[in-house]
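My current task is to audit a protein record that another person submitted. What it holds is a sequence and that sequence's fold in C-alpha coordinate form. Thanks in advance; the entry in question is below.
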Amino acid sequence: MSESRFIVKSFGQFFRYRPARLVGLFLITLFQGLSQGITIVMLIPLLGLIDPSQAEGSTNTWAGFLEGFLKQTGIGASLELILVIFAVCLVLIALLTYFQSIIQSSYQQEFSYHTRKRLFRKIIGSDWEYLNGRSKFNHIQVLTTEIPKMTLYYHSYLSLAIKAIFIIAHVVLALMISVRFTLLVVIAGLIIVFLLRNYLKKSEILGKANIRAFRDMLKRIDDFWTTVKIAKVHNSEAFYYKKFAESNEQMLHYQNKQVRNRAIPQFLFTLAGTLLLVTVIYVAYRVASLPVASLFVLILLFARMFPQFMGVNNDLSMLISLQSSVQMVLETERDIPERGFGGAKTTGKIGFNHELKIEGLNFAYDPGKPLFVNFSETIPAGKITGLIGNSGCGKTTLIDIIAGLLNIEQGTLSVDGKVLGRDNLTEWRSELGYLPQDAFFIDGTIRENLIWDTNWNGGDARLEEVLRLVNASDLIASQKQGLDTLVANYQYHFSGGERQRLALARVLLRNPRLLLLDEATSSLDPENEALVMDSLLHLRGKVTIVFVTHRENLQRYFDKIIDLNNRD
Protein backbone atom coordinates (compact mmCIF):
# COMPACT_ATOMS: atom_id res chain seq x y z
CA MET A 1 0.00 0.00 0.00
CA SER A 2 1.41 3.42 -0.97
CA GLU A 3 2.01 5.97 1.75
CA SER A 4 -0.70 8.32 0.46
CA ARG A 5 -3.30 5.51 0.32
CA PHE A 6 -2.29 4.37 3.80
CA ILE A 7 -2.73 7.88 5.20
CA VAL A 8 -6.16 8.25 3.61
CA LYS A 9 -7.29 4.80 4.77
CA SER A 10 -6.01 5.19 8.32
CA PHE A 11 -7.48 8.65 8.77
CA GLY A 12 -10.72 7.48 7.19
CA GLN A 13 -11.10 4.94 10.00
CA PHE A 14 -10.53 7.69 12.54
CA PHE A 15 -13.00 10.01 10.83
CA ARG A 16 -15.75 7.37 10.64
CA TYR A 17 -15.80 7.17 14.42
CA ARG A 18 -18.25 9.94 15.43
CA PRO A 19 -17.57 12.26 12.45
CA ALA A 20 -19.93 14.96 13.74
CA ARG A 21 -17.84 15.39 16.87
CA LEU A 22 -14.65 15.53 14.82
CA VAL A 23 -16.11 18.20 12.52
CA GLY A 24 -17.22 20.15 15.58
CA LEU A 25 -13.71 19.92 16.98
CA PHE A 26 -12.27 21.35 13.76
CA LEU A 27 -14.79 24.23 13.79
CA ILE A 28 -13.91 25.08 17.39
CA THR A 29 -10.23 25.00 16.49
CA LEU A 30 -10.78 27.24 13.48
CA PHE A 31 -12.70 29.78 15.54
CA GLN A 32 -10.09 29.57 18.29
CA GLY A 33 -7.23 30.25 15.85
CA LEU A 34 -9.02 33.24 14.34
CA SER A 35 -9.95 34.58 17.78
CA GLN A 36 -6.38 34.45 19.02
CA GLY A 37 -5.15 36.30 15.94
CA ILE A 38 -7.90 38.92 16.11
CA THR A 39 -7.18 39.51 19.80
CA ILE A 40 -3.57 40.29 19.00
CA VAL A 41 -4.55 42.59 16.11
CA MET A 42 -6.87 44.48 18.47
CA LEU A 43 -3.75 45.74 20.18
CA ILE A 44 -3.28 48.14 17.25
CA PRO A 45 -6.34 50.34 17.98
CA LEU A 46 -5.62 49.91 21.69
CA LEU A 47 -2.14 51.34 21.18
CA GLY A 48 -3.62 54.01 18.91
CA LEU A 49 -5.87 55.18 21.73
CA ILE A 50 -3.02 55.18 24.22
CA ASP A 51 -0.68 57.05 21.85
CA PRO A 52 -2.58 58.82 19.00
CA SER A 53 0.73 59.53 17.23
CA GLN A 54 0.88 55.78 16.43
CA ALA A 55 -2.52 55.81 14.75
CA GLU A 56 -1.30 56.00 11.14
CA GLY A 57 -0.94 53.67 8.18
CA SER A 58 -2.31 50.25 8.80
CA THR A 59 -2.86 51.21 12.41
CA ASN A 60 -5.34 53.88 11.33
CA THR A 61 -7.20 51.29 9.24
CA TRP A 62 -7.83 49.05 12.23
CA ALA A 63 -8.58 51.99 14.54
CA GLY A 64 -11.00 53.47 12.00
CA PHE A 65 -12.78 50.14 11.57
CA LEU A 66 -13.26 49.70 15.32
CA GLU A 67 -14.26 53.34 15.83
CA GLY A 68 -16.82 53.18 13.02
CA PHE A 69 -18.30 49.96 14.43
CA LEU A 70 -18.63 51.46 17.90
CA LYS A 71 -20.31 54.64 16.53
CA GLN A 72 -22.91 52.54 14.72
CA THR A 73 -23.80 50.90 18.03
CA GLY A 74 -23.97 54.32 19.74
CA ILE A 75 -20.99 53.61 21.97
CA GLY A 76 -17.95 55.85 21.94
CA ALA A 77 -14.45 54.37 21.71
CA SER A 78 -12.49 54.50 24.94
CA LEU A 79 -9.53 52.80 26.53
CA GLU A 80 -11.77 51.18 29.14
CA LEU A 81 -14.15 49.75 26.54
CA ILE A 82 -11.38 48.30 24.38
CA LEU A 83 -9.77 46.72 27.47
CA VAL A 84 -13.13 45.13 28.37
CA ILE A 85 -13.51 43.77 24.80
CA PHE A 86 -9.93 42.53 24.91
CA ALA A 87 -10.51 40.77 28.24
CA VAL A 88 -13.78 39.20 27.02
CA CYS A 89 -11.98 37.85 23.95
CA LEU A 90 -9.26 36.33 26.13
CA VAL A 91 -11.84 34.65 28.37
CA LEU A 92 -13.69 33.35 25.31
CA ILE A 93 -10.44 31.90 23.95
CA ALA A 94 -9.75 30.26 27.30
CA LEU A 95 -13.21 28.66 27.26
CA LEU A 96 -12.72 27.47 23.68
CA THR A 97 -9.35 25.99 24.63
CA TYR A 98 -10.95 24.20 27.58
CA PHE A 99 -13.76 22.68 25.51
CA GLN A 100 -11.36 21.81 22.72
CA SER A 101 -9.06 19.89 25.06
CA ILE A 102 -11.99 18.04 26.70
CA ILE A 103 -13.61 17.07 23.39
CA GLN A 104 -10.31 16.10 21.79
CA SER A 105 -9.17 13.99 24.74
CA SER A 106 -12.56 12.30 25.02
CA TYR A 107 -12.62 11.56 21.30
CA GLN A 108 -9.14 10.01 21.34
CA GLN A 109 -9.67 7.90 24.46
CA GLU A 110 -13.05 6.61 23.31
CA PHE A 111 -11.60 5.76 19.90
CA SER A 112 -8.80 3.80 21.60
CA TYR A 113 -11.31 2.06 23.89
CA HIS A 114 -13.62 0.98 21.06
CA THR A 115 -10.74 -0.07 18.79
CA ARG A 116 -9.23 -2.25 21.51
CA LYS A 117 -12.61 -3.77 22.37
CA ARG A 118 -13.48 -4.44 18.73
CA LEU A 119 -10.10 -6.01 17.96
CA PHE A 120 -10.08 -8.22 21.05
CA ARG A 121 -13.58 -9.38 20.18
CA LYS A 122 -12.35 -10.38 16.73
CA ILE A 123 -9.29 -12.14 18.17
CA ILE A 124 -11.24 -14.09 20.77
CA GLY A 125 -13.89 -15.06 18.22
CA SER A 126 -11.44 -16.28 15.56
CA ASP A 127 -10.84 -19.92 14.69
CA TRP A 128 -8.53 -22.12 16.73
CA GLU A 129 -6.41 -22.78 13.63
CA TYR A 130 -5.80 -19.04 13.23
CA LEU A 131 -4.95 -18.47 16.88
CA ASN A 132 -2.74 -21.54 17.09
CA GLY A 133 -0.71 -20.34 14.09
CA ARG A 134 -0.07 -16.80 15.35
CA SER A 135 2.35 -15.41 17.90
CA LYS A 136 0.57 -14.29 21.04
CA PHE A 137 3.14 -11.53 21.52
CA ASN A 138 1.95 -9.72 18.39
CA HIS A 139 -1.61 -9.62 19.69
CA ILE A 140 -0.56 -8.65 23.22
CA GLN A 141 1.63 -5.89 21.81
CA VAL A 142 -1.13 -4.59 19.55
CA LEU A 143 -3.74 -4.51 22.32
CA THR A 144 -1.52 -3.02 25.04
CA THR A 145 0.95 -0.79 23.20
CA GLU A 146 0.21 -0.24 19.53
CA ILE A 147 -3.43 0.83 19.89
CA PRO A 148 -2.46 3.67 22.27
CA LYS A 149 0.23 4.61 19.74
CA MET A 150 -2.45 4.54 17.06
CA THR A 151 -4.45 7.02 19.14
CA LEU A 152 -1.33 9.19 19.47
CA TYR A 153 -0.95 8.92 15.70
CA TYR A 154 -4.41 10.36 15.16
CA HIS A 155 -3.74 12.95 17.84
CA SER A 156 -0.79 14.06 15.73
CA TYR A 157 -3.17 14.34 12.78
CA LEU A 158 -5.43 16.60 14.81
CA SER A 159 -2.49 18.56 16.15
CA LEU A 160 -1.18 19.03 12.62
CA ALA A 161 -4.59 20.23 11.46
CA ILE A 162 -4.87 22.58 14.43
CA LYS A 163 -1.45 24.08 13.71
CA ALA A 164 -2.35 24.47 10.04
CA ILE A 165 -5.55 26.31 11.00
CA PHE A 166 -3.60 28.44 13.47
CA ILE A 167 -0.96 29.33 10.86
CA ILE A 168 -3.54 30.15 8.18
CA ALA A 169 -5.53 32.38 10.56
CA HIS A 170 -2.42 34.27 11.66
CA VAL A 171 -1.11 34.55 8.09
CA VAL A 172 -4.39 36.10 6.94
CA LEU A 173 -4.26 38.66 9.75
CA ALA A 174 -0.55 39.33 9.26
CA LEU A 175 -1.14 39.93 5.53
CA MET A 176 -3.45 42.80 6.48
CA ILE A 177 -0.52 44.45 8.20
CA SER A 178 2.34 43.59 5.83
CA VAL A 179 2.20 41.34 2.79
CA ARG A 180 5.97 41.35 2.20
CA PHE A 181 7.09 40.36 5.68
CA THR A 182 4.31 37.78 6.07
CA LEU A 183 5.28 36.03 2.84
CA LEU A 184 8.93 36.13 3.93
CA VAL A 185 8.16 34.31 7.19
CA VAL A 186 5.86 31.74 5.54
CA ILE A 187 8.31 30.92 2.74
CA ALA A 188 11.20 30.67 5.22
CA GLY A 189 9.22 28.28 7.40
CA LEU A 190 8.33 26.02 4.45
CA ILE A 191 11.94 25.99 3.26
CA ILE A 192 13.19 24.91 6.69
CA VAL A 193 10.60 22.11 6.85
CA PHE A 194 11.79 20.92 3.43
CA LEU A 195 15.48 21.04 4.40
CA LEU A 196 14.82 18.91 7.49
CA ARG A 197 12.93 16.17 5.58
CA ASN A 198 15.72 13.62 6.18
CA TYR A 199 14.87 13.63 9.87
CA LEU A 200 11.33 12.60 8.90
CA LYS A 201 12.63 9.61 6.94
CA LYS A 202 14.73 8.58 9.91
CA SER A 203 11.62 8.72 12.13
CA GLU A 204 10.05 5.88 10.14
CA ILE A 205 13.14 3.67 10.51
CA LEU A 206 13.35 4.29 14.26
CA GLY A 207 9.61 3.66 14.70
CA LYS A 208 9.91 0.18 13.16
CA ALA A 209 13.03 -0.61 15.19
CA ASN A 210 11.30 0.43 18.42
CA ILE A 211 8.39 -1.95 17.72
CA ARG A 212 10.77 -4.88 17.18
CA ALA A 213 12.70 -4.06 20.36
CA PHE A 214 9.53 -3.90 22.46
CA ARG A 215 8.27 -7.21 21.09
CA ASP A 216 11.60 -8.84 21.92
CA MET A 217 11.50 -7.48 25.47
CA LEU A 218 7.92 -8.70 25.93
CA LYS A 219 8.99 -12.18 24.83
CA ARG A 220 11.93 -12.22 27.24
CA ILE A 221 9.62 -11.42 30.16
CA ASP A 222 7.21 -14.20 29.15
CA ASP A 223 10.10 -16.65 28.63
CA PHE A 224 11.16 -16.18 32.24
CA TRP A 225 7.69 -16.63 33.75
CA THR A 226 7.05 -19.67 31.58
CA THR A 227 10.24 -21.39 32.76
CA VAL A 228 10.71 -19.74 36.16
CA LYS A 229 11.07 -23.03 38.03
CA ILE A 230 13.68 -24.30 35.58
CA ALA A 231 15.52 -20.99 35.89
CA LYS A 232 15.73 -21.42 39.65
CA VAL A 233 16.69 -25.10 39.58
CA HIS A 234 19.39 -24.52 36.96
CA ASN A 235 20.64 -21.41 38.75
CA SER A 236 20.35 -19.59 35.42
CA GLU A 237 18.86 -16.30 36.59
CA ALA A 238 21.85 -14.46 35.12
CA PHE A 239 21.05 -15.93 31.69
CA TYR A 240 17.47 -14.61 31.78
CA TYR A 241 18.61 -11.28 33.17
CA LYS A 242 21.14 -10.90 30.36
CA LYS A 243 18.50 -11.65 27.72
CA PHE A 244 16.11 -9.13 29.26
CA ALA A 245 18.84 -6.51 29.72
CA GLU A 246 19.81 -6.79 26.04
CA SER A 247 16.23 -6.19 24.93
CA ASN A 248 15.76 -3.39 27.44
CA GLU A 249 18.98 -1.74 26.28
CA GLN A 250 17.79 -1.92 22.67
CA MET A 251 14.56 -0.19 23.71
CA LEU A 252 16.52 2.56 25.46
CA HIS A 253 18.86 2.94 22.49
CA TYR A 254 16.09 3.46 19.95
CA GLN A 255 14.03 5.67 22.24
CA ASN A 256 17.04 7.94 22.83
CA LYS A 257 17.65 8.09 19.09
CA GLN A 258 14.00 9.06 18.58
CA VAL A 259 14.32 11.85 21.14
CA ARG A 260 17.47 13.19 19.45
CA ASN A 261 15.87 12.87 16.03
CA ARG A 262 13.07 15.19 17.20
CA ALA A 263 15.25 17.52 19.29
CA ILE A 264 17.73 18.45 16.52
CA PRO A 265 15.05 19.86 14.16
CA GLN A 266 13.52 21.74 17.09
CA PHE A 267 16.87 23.38 17.81
CA LEU A 268 17.44 24.26 14.15
CA PHE A 269 13.92 25.69 13.87
CA THR A 270 14.43 27.80 16.97
CA LEU A 271 17.78 29.07 15.68
CA ALA A 272 16.41 29.89 12.23
CA GLY A 273 13.28 31.46 13.70
CA THR A 274 15.28 33.71 15.99
CA LEU A 275 17.51 34.93 13.13
CA LEU A 276 14.50 35.47 10.88
CA LEU A 277 12.56 37.39 13.54
CA VAL A 278 15.52 39.66 14.27
CA THR A 279 15.95 40.30 10.53
CA VAL A 280 12.25 41.10 10.08
CA ILE A 281 12.24 43.53 13.01
CA TYR A 282 15.36 45.33 11.77
CA VAL A 283 14.24 45.62 8.14
CA ALA A 284 10.64 46.54 9.06
CA TYR A 285 11.74 49.33 11.40
CA ARG A 286 14.89 50.65 9.71
CA VAL A 287 14.14 50.09 6.03
CA ALA A 288 10.36 49.84 5.62
CA SER A 289 9.59 52.35 8.41
CA LEU A 290 6.62 50.32 9.60
CA PRO A 291 4.65 52.10 12.37
CA VAL A 292 5.64 51.00 15.86
CA ALA A 293 2.17 49.73 16.74
CA SER A 294 1.93 47.66 13.57
CA LEU A 295 5.49 46.43 14.04
CA PHE A 296 4.70 45.39 17.61
CA VAL A 297 1.61 43.42 16.59
CA LEU A 298 3.42 41.90 13.61
CA ILE A 299 6.18 40.69 15.93
CA LEU A 300 3.57 39.09 18.19
CA LEU A 301 1.92 37.37 15.25
CA PHE A 302 5.23 36.08 13.90
CA ALA A 303 6.40 35.03 17.36
CA ARG A 304 3.25 32.92 17.69
CA MET A 305 3.16 31.71 14.08
CA PHE A 306 6.75 30.57 13.47
CA PRO A 307 6.86 28.05 16.37
CA GLN A 308 3.83 26.45 14.70
CA PHE A 309 6.07 25.57 11.75
CA MET A 310 8.33 23.82 14.23
CA GLY A 311 5.29 22.06 15.64
CA VAL A 312 4.25 20.97 12.14
CA ASN A 313 7.64 19.35 11.67
CA ASN A 314 7.34 17.61 15.06
CA ASP A 315 3.86 16.31 14.23
CA LEU A 316 5.05 15.02 10.86
CA SER A 317 7.94 13.28 12.60
CA MET A 318 5.53 11.72 15.11
CA LEU A 319 3.14 10.62 12.37
CA ILE A 320 5.87 8.91 10.40
CA SER A 321 7.45 7.23 13.44
CA LEU A 322 4.04 5.86 14.50
CA GLN A 323 3.01 4.74 11.03
CA SER A 324 4.39 1.22 11.61
CA SER A 325 2.28 0.90 14.76
CA VAL A 326 -0.87 1.90 12.89
CA GLN A 327 -0.05 -0.53 10.08
CA MET A 328 0.40 -3.30 12.65
CA VAL A 329 -3.05 -2.61 14.14
CA LEU A 330 -4.78 -2.31 10.76
CA GLU A 331 -3.13 -5.47 9.41
CA THR A 332 -4.09 -7.43 12.52
CA GLU A 333 -7.68 -6.28 12.24
CA ARG A 334 -7.74 -6.94 8.48
CA ASP A 335 -6.41 -10.50 8.89
CA ILE A 336 -9.10 -11.55 11.36
CA PRO A 337 -12.60 -12.05 9.95
CA GLU A 338 -15.53 -10.58 11.83
CA ARG A 339 -17.35 -13.25 13.82
CA GLY A 340 -19.75 -13.07 16.70
CA PHE A 341 -19.38 -14.94 19.96
CA GLY A 342 -20.43 -18.56 19.84
CA GLY A 343 -22.70 -18.24 22.86
CA ALA A 344 -24.71 -15.48 21.21
CA LYS A 345 -26.07 -17.87 18.55
CA THR A 346 -27.14 -20.73 20.79
CA THR A 347 -30.69 -21.83 19.98
CA GLY A 348 -30.86 -25.00 22.03
CA LYS A 349 -29.03 -28.11 23.14
CA ILE A 350 -28.04 -31.06 21.02
CA GLY A 351 -29.36 -34.24 22.53
CA PHE A 352 -26.61 -36.80 23.15
CA ASN A 353 -28.34 -39.96 24.31
CA HIS A 354 -27.07 -42.69 22.01
CA GLU A 355 -23.83 -42.19 20.12
CA LEU A 356 -21.36 -39.87 18.44
CA LYS A 357 -20.58 -41.23 14.97
CA ILE A 358 -17.51 -40.41 12.86
CA GLU A 359 -17.87 -41.49 9.22
CA GLY A 360 -15.41 -41.32 6.29
CA LEU A 361 -13.04 -38.88 8.01
CA ASN A 362 -10.11 -37.59 5.95
CA PHE A 363 -7.69 -35.12 7.49
CA ALA A 364 -4.06 -33.98 7.07
CA TYR A 365 -1.96 -31.03 8.25
CA ASP A 366 0.48 -31.79 5.44
CA PRO A 367 -1.27 -32.95 2.22
CA GLY A 368 1.46 -35.53 1.70
CA LYS A 369 1.08 -37.04 5.18
CA PRO A 370 -2.57 -37.80 5.96
CA LEU A 371 -3.45 -38.60 9.57
CA PHE A 372 -6.88 -40.01 8.85
CA VAL A 373 -8.02 -41.71 5.66
CA ASN A 374 -11.66 -42.82 5.43
CA PHE A 375 -11.72 -43.21 9.23
CA SER A 376 -14.98 -44.25 10.90
CA GLU A 377 -15.82 -44.93 14.56
CA THR A 378 -18.60 -44.58 17.12
CA ILE A 379 -18.45 -43.26 20.67
CA PRO A 380 -21.29 -44.57 22.85
CA ALA A 381 -23.14 -42.14 25.11
CA GLY A 382 -22.70 -42.46 28.89
CA LYS A 383 -19.58 -44.62 28.53
CA ILE A 384 -15.84 -44.09 28.99
CA THR A 385 -14.06 -44.46 25.65
CA GLY A 386 -10.28 -44.73 25.66
CA LEU A 387 -8.38 -43.23 22.74
CA ILE A 388 -4.95 -44.85 22.60
CA GLY A 389 -2.01 -45.04 20.23
CA ASN A 390 1.61 -44.06 19.74
CA SER A 391 2.81 -40.47 19.82
CA GLY A 392 1.93 -38.67 16.59
CA CYS A 393 -0.84 -41.05 15.56
CA GLY A 394 -3.53 -38.33 15.78
CA LYS A 395 -5.09 -38.74 19.22
CA THR A 396 -5.13 -35.03 20.07
CA THR A 397 -6.08 -34.16 16.49
CA LEU A 398 -9.15 -36.40 16.74
CA ILE A 399 -10.11 -34.68 20.01
CA ASP A 400 -9.77 -31.30 18.28
CA ILE A 401 -11.92 -32.48 15.37
CA ILE A 402 -14.63 -33.73 17.74
CA ALA A 403 -14.54 -30.35 19.52
CA GLY A 404 -14.96 -28.54 16.19
CA LEU A 405 -11.57 -26.81 16.39
CA LEU A 406 -10.33 -28.19 13.06
CA ASN A 407 -12.06 -28.16 9.69
CA ILE A 408 -12.16 -31.59 8.10
CA GLU A 409 -11.63 -32.18 4.39
CA GLN A 410 -14.07 -35.05 4.03
CA GLY A 411 -16.32 -36.98 6.33
CA THR A 412 -19.08 -36.27 8.82
CA LEU A 413 -19.60 -36.16 12.57
CA SER A 414 -23.10 -36.78 13.84
CA VAL A 415 -24.73 -37.00 17.28
CA ASP A 416 -27.81 -39.19 17.52
CA GLY A 417 -28.18 -38.82 13.76
CA LYS A 418 -27.77 -35.01 13.70
CA VAL A 419 -24.80 -33.94 11.55
CA LEU A 420 -22.45 -31.44 13.22
CA GLY A 421 -21.45 -28.39 11.20
CA ARG A 422 -20.92 -24.64 11.45
CA ASP A 423 -24.62 -23.98 11.81
CA ASN A 424 -24.84 -25.93 15.10
CA LEU A 425 -21.22 -25.78 16.28
CA THR A 426 -22.14 -23.31 19.03
CA GLU A 427 -24.79 -25.62 20.43
CA TRP A 428 -22.40 -28.55 20.28
CA ARG A 429 -19.60 -26.76 22.14
CA SER A 430 -22.03 -25.80 24.88
CA GLU A 431 -22.26 -29.55 25.58
CA LEU A 432 -18.49 -30.08 25.89
CA GLY A 433 -16.01 -30.08 28.74
CA TYR A 434 -12.26 -30.17 28.00
CA LEU A 435 -9.40 -31.06 30.36
CA PRO A 436 -5.85 -30.89 28.98
CA GLN A 437 -2.66 -32.38 30.42
CA ASP A 438 -1.62 -29.10 32.04
CA ALA A 439 -4.55 -27.48 33.80
CA PHE A 440 -4.60 -23.69 33.94
CA PHE A 441 -5.49 -21.53 36.92
CA ILE A 442 -5.80 -17.76 37.21
CA ASP A 443 -4.50 -15.57 40.01
CA GLY A 444 -7.55 -15.37 42.25
CA THR A 445 -9.52 -17.33 44.85
CA ILE A 446 -10.23 -21.05 44.54
CA ARG A 447 -13.90 -20.18 44.05
CA GLU A 448 -13.06 -17.81 41.17
CA ASN A 449 -10.95 -20.54 39.59
CA LEU A 450 -13.70 -23.12 39.86
CA ILE A 451 -16.39 -20.96 38.25
CA TRP A 452 -13.99 -19.22 35.82
CA ASP A 453 -15.78 -19.83 32.50
CA THR A 454 -18.82 -21.74 33.68
CA ASN A 455 -21.28 -18.82 34.00
CA TRP A 456 -21.99 -20.25 37.44
CA ASN A 457 -24.01 -17.94 39.66
CA GLY A 458 -25.32 -20.40 42.23
CA GLY A 459 -24.26 -20.91 45.82
CA ASP A 460 -21.40 -22.91 47.28
CA ALA A 461 -23.54 -26.02 47.82
CA ARG A 462 -23.15 -27.09 44.18
CA LEU A 463 -19.42 -26.35 44.31
CA GLU A 464 -19.02 -28.53 47.38
CA GLU A 465 -21.02 -31.31 45.73
CA VAL A 466 -18.74 -31.32 42.68
CA LEU A 467 -15.63 -31.15 44.87
CA ARG A 468 -16.80 -34.28 46.71
CA LEU A 469 -17.38 -35.97 43.37
CA VAL A 470 -13.72 -35.42 42.35
CA ASN A 471 -12.29 -36.26 45.80
CA ALA A 472 -11.21 -32.66 46.46
CA SER A 473 -13.31 -31.76 49.53
CA ASP A 474 -10.46 -32.47 51.94
CA LEU A 475 -8.19 -30.28 49.83
CA ILE A 476 -10.46 -27.24 50.27
CA ALA A 477 -11.02 -28.04 53.96
CA SER A 478 -7.26 -27.99 54.53
CA GLN A 479 -7.08 -24.35 53.40
CA LYS A 480 -7.56 -21.76 56.17
CA GLN A 481 -9.88 -19.62 54.05
CA GLY A 482 -11.52 -22.49 52.19
CA LEU A 483 -12.92 -21.44 48.83
CA ASP A 484 -11.76 -17.86 49.49
CA THR A 485 -8.09 -18.95 49.54
CA LEU A 486 -6.07 -16.86 47.11
CA VAL A 487 -4.08 -18.76 44.50
CA ALA A 488 -1.10 -17.22 42.69
CA ASN A 489 1.29 -19.06 40.43
CA TYR A 490 -0.99 -22.07 40.72
CA GLN A 491 1.58 -24.64 39.67
CA TYR A 492 3.40 -24.20 42.97
CA HIS A 493 0.37 -23.89 45.26
CA PHE A 494 -1.01 -27.39 44.65
CA SER A 495 0.41 -30.74 43.65
CA GLY A 496 -0.19 -32.12 40.15
CA GLY A 497 -3.00 -34.40 41.32
CA GLU A 498 -4.67 -31.61 43.28
CA ARG A 499 -4.55 -29.32 40.27
CA GLN A 500 -6.12 -31.90 37.99
CA ARG A 501 -8.91 -32.69 40.44
CA LEU A 502 -9.73 -28.98 40.83
CA ALA A 503 -9.59 -28.54 37.06
CA LEU A 504 -11.92 -31.51 36.64
CA ALA A 505 -14.33 -29.93 39.12
CA ARG A 506 -14.33 -26.72 37.08
CA VAL A 507 -15.10 -28.64 33.89
CA LEU A 508 -17.93 -30.55 35.57
CA LEU A 509 -19.53 -27.30 36.70
CA ARG A 510 -20.24 -26.68 33.02
CA ASN A 511 -22.57 -29.72 33.15
CA PRO A 512 -21.08 -31.21 29.96
CA ARG A 513 -22.66 -34.07 28.05
CA LEU A 514 -19.27 -34.99 26.55
CA LEU A 515 -16.03 -34.78 28.53
CA LEU A 516 -12.78 -34.70 26.53
CA LEU A 517 -9.61 -35.50 28.50
CA ASP A 518 -6.30 -35.19 26.66
CA GLU A 519 -3.55 -37.02 28.58
CA ALA A 520 -5.13 -35.60 31.74
CA THR A 521 -3.22 -37.97 34.07
CA SER A 522 0.06 -38.38 32.18
CA SER A 523 1.99 -36.17 34.61
CA LEU A 524 0.53 -37.72 37.77
CA ASP A 525 1.91 -40.41 40.04
CA PRO A 526 -0.08 -43.69 40.32
CA GLU A 527 -1.84 -42.66 43.54
CA ASN A 528 -3.13 -39.33 42.20
CA GLU A 529 -3.92 -40.90 38.85
CA ALA A 530 -6.10 -43.49 40.63
CA LEU A 531 -7.96 -40.69 42.46
CA VAL A 532 -8.74 -38.92 39.20
CA MET A 533 -9.81 -42.12 37.48
CA ASP A 534 -12.04 -43.09 40.42
CA SER A 535 -13.69 -39.70 40.07
CA LEU A 536 -14.39 -40.42 36.41
CA LEU A 537 -15.97 -43.78 37.28
CA HIS A 538 -18.55 -41.90 39.34
CA LEU A 539 -19.56 -40.06 36.17
CA ARG A 540 -20.23 -43.20 34.13
CA GLY A 541 -23.78 -43.16 32.87
CA LYS A 542 -24.10 -39.41 33.52
CA VAL A 543 -21.43 -38.05 31.18
CA THR A 544 -19.86 -39.43 28.00
CA ILE A 545 -16.07 -39.46 28.40
CA VAL A 546 -13.36 -39.67 25.76
CA PHE A 547 -10.00 -40.23 27.42
CA VAL A 548 -6.75 -39.83 25.46
CA THR A 549 -3.83 -41.74 26.97
CA HIS A 550 -0.71 -43.71 26.15
CA ARG A 551 -0.78 -45.65 29.45
CA GLU A 552 -1.84 -49.26 29.12
CA ASN A 553 -2.70 -49.59 32.83
CA LEU A 554 -5.69 -47.25 32.34
CA GLN A 555 -7.40 -49.50 29.80
CA ARG A 556 -9.24 -51.34 32.57
CA TYR A 557 -11.27 -48.18 33.23
CA PHE A 558 -12.57 -47.96 29.65
CA ASP A 559 -15.85 -49.35 28.33
CA LYS A 560 -14.54 -49.04 24.79
CA ILE A 561 -11.06 -48.63 23.33
CA ILE A 562 -10.23 -46.96 20.02
CA ASP A 563 -6.67 -47.91 19.06
CA LEU A 564 -5.40 -45.51 16.41
CA ASN A 565 -2.42 -47.77 15.77
CA ASN A 566 -4.78 -50.37 14.31
CA ARG A 567 -7.17 -48.75 11.84
CA ASP A 568 -7.47 -51.59 9.30
Observations:
- The CA atoms of residues 25 and 101 lie 9 Å apart.
- The first helix runs from residue 3 to 16.
